[in-house]
Fold:
Amino acid sequence: VVVHTGELRLSTQGDSDVIDITDGVQRVVSSSGIDEGIAAAFVRGSTASVTTMEHEPGGVHDLRALLDRLIPVEGDYEHNRLNRDTNSHAHQRASIVGPSEVVPVSGGRLALGTWQQIVLIDFDDRPRERTVVIQVIS
Ligand code: ZN
Structure:
């Protein structure tokens, strides 16, 4: 088994900022020299997610609107009450969407669809510095 680990460091605006990290993940895959295997991308922290989507303004708007409806910013949240915090919605959204994705690597390239990008979504209610850990495994 060959494992290559890389990291992406990103500054986000918070508030469901959606950032396309596909090129960064591909750079780590390319630098690994691995042609066939899998690439896992995982964001550290409990208020951000990694997922895939068609990264275009309409899709980004609709996903943010959906999560606003499902898990509103303002709510009756124990996390906020018990911890004098303001970001329980961010924790819940991050848990639902999830912290990682695994993408097959074929011919040294991420085997994504044409209209499918890997995105980091920062749900926290303030700007953050984020680290996405990428492991390429063959
Ligand atoms: Zn919190």
Observations:
- The pocket of zinc ion is lined by residues 79, 83, 85, 87, 91 (CB under 6 Å).
